[in-house]
Structures are given as C-alpha cells and as structure tokens.
Amino acid sequence: MKKIVLAVVVFVSSFTYAQQEVKVDLLDALAFKTLEVSYEYYTTDRSSIGISALFNFEKKSADFRYNEERMFTPFFRHYFTNNSNWNYFGEVFMGINTGEREVEVQGSATKQYKEYTDGALGLAFGSKYVSSGGFVLDVYGGLGRNLFTSEARSIVPRVGINLGYRF
C-alpha cells in the first residue's frame, strides 16, 4: 500500500512542478472572429506537447474566413535554444478539423453545404517570449495537408499570435 501511495505522489508531483502554459490566439479573435485556446505542457527544457482548440464564429458569407468550423490540434514543439526569455521552435501537428464545403447541385440555384471531418498533418515554425512574471507571447505560422477526404480543402493553415500565462 505504501508503494502505491508513493507512486501516486511522485506521479502527481511530476505534473505540479512542470511548466505549463494557457494561451489565447489574439490574431484569430480580432481578424477572423474565431476563438483558439491552447494548453502547452513542457516535457523537458527544450520540448513540449500541447493541444489547441479552434472555434469559428464567422458567417459563411464573409469575404475571408477559415474553412474549418472547429479544429482540435495536438502538437509537439522542439525549442532550438536554452534562452529562457526568447526562443525559437519547430512544431509538428495533427489537426482534426470539421467544416462544411459548398457543393453545386445541378438544376438548383440555392447553395448547399456538405459536412466533412478530416485530419491534417503539418509543420509550423515560430518564436516565443516569456517574461519573468510568466507572461507569454508566441508567434507562429505553418501549413498542414488534409489526408483523408476529398470534401475538405487540401491545405490547413496554422497561424497565430498567442497571449498567455506560464505557471
């Protein structure tokens, strides 16, 4: 029984002392009427894993909008330096996205939409600033490619300016 309690304490304490971040994408919120929130967990000093969730609130009639209605993006980041304030990273991500694509129906003038769900594999690169108080700002950009259905767009963007907090 003591070994089980010790194992649980060690497991829980490994998460409490690790660096974690919670962020909101300002670029998406202001420019595209979408909400993207991210959680990042550092596995070592130079690598992390995380997940982002994007929700699109822009109308379909807008001139420019994301094609995806929702996108959940697990990612792995590797940081290139040990600098604690400014750092550069590369990211591999797998975006699971859902949306609707406009389809033409012969003999009908009304717009019809077909729903899809797809997965995109991609790469992104960026830079991150972390203040001594825990304030986080990261900027990144990249592209992924949808893999599983022809209904989804081929290319999925991964672009953001995140503002958050490290704890």
Task: Tally the helices.
Answer: 2
Strand content is over 45%
Report the helical percentage. Answer: 10-25%
Please give the number of β-strands. Answer: 8
**What is the 3D form?**
elongated
Sketch the major β-sheet. 8 strands, antiparallel, barrel
Structural class: mainly beta
The strand line-up of the biggest sheet is 1-2-3-4-5-6-7-8
Poorly predicted tracts of residues: none
* SSE topology string: HEHEEEEEEE
Round the Cα radius of gyration to an integer and report it. 19 Å
On the 0-100 scale, what is the average pLDDT?
A: 88
First CA to last CA: what distance?
Answer: 32 Å
Describe this structure in words.
The chain has helices spanning about 1-15, 25-30, and strands at about 20-25, 35-45, 45-55, 70-80, 85-105, 110-130, 135-145, 155-165. The protein has two helices and eight strands, in the order αβαβββββββ. Strands 1-2-3-4-5-6-7-8 form an eight-stranded antiparallel barrel. It is mostly beta strands and about 170 residues long. It is about 15% helix and about 60% strand. It starts with a helix and ends with a strand. The mean pLDDT is about 90.
In short:
The chain has 167 residues and is mainly β.
Layout of SSEs?
Elements: H1 2-16, E1 20-25, H2 26-31, E2 34-44, E3 47-56, E4 68-79, E5 86-103, E6 112-130, E7 135-146, E8 155-166
Antiparallel strand pairs: 1-2, 1-8, 2-3, 3-4, 4-5, 5-6, 6-7, 7-8
